[in-house]
Write a structure and sequence with these properties.
6 strands; about 30% strand; alpha+beta; 4 helices; globular
Length: about 120
């Protein structure tokens, strides 16, 4: 199940304690396959910059199998259009599970959904 949460709630959870960033092998391989990093790189600088210095546009909390962790899909606006989408786990670390770019069409769908949710919440 996925639930849209406010960016401020996500940032509060993210920054409530200092956490190191870790990568799954899958996330590094996907970043290379998707040309987000080069074959020689073993960290994703773009992710580290986004997660430390930027605010996401939209955040969705996903169900996690482990009750000691929280799983999120965070959409950060990409300078080339669309979003960089990060699936992360917050536990003792900030673990990147996977990374991908979205299209301009997906960006428009996310914004329309966010606008409907905000309009509905305000009544």
């Amino acid at each position: 199940m996925e639930t849209k949460i406010s960016v401020s709630d996500f940032l509060k959870t993210l920054k409530q304690k200092a956490r190191d960033i870790s990568y799954t092998e899958h996330s590094i391989q996907r970043a290379k396959t998707r040309k987000i990093i080069s074959e020689a790189e073993s960290i994703i600088k773009r992710f580290e910059k986004d997660i430390k210095d930027s605010n996401p546009d939209v955040v969705v909390e996903q169900t996690s199998e482990n009750p000691d962790e929280r799983k999120f899909k965070a959409y950060y606006k990409a300078i080339e259009g669309g979003f960089m989408t990060y699936i992360i786990i917050l536990d003792g670390y900030i673990r990147l599970l996977t990374i991908y770019r979205t299209s301009k069409t997906k960006q428009e769908q996310v914004y329309k959904h966010a606008k409907r949710v905000i309009h509905h919440e305000r009544g």
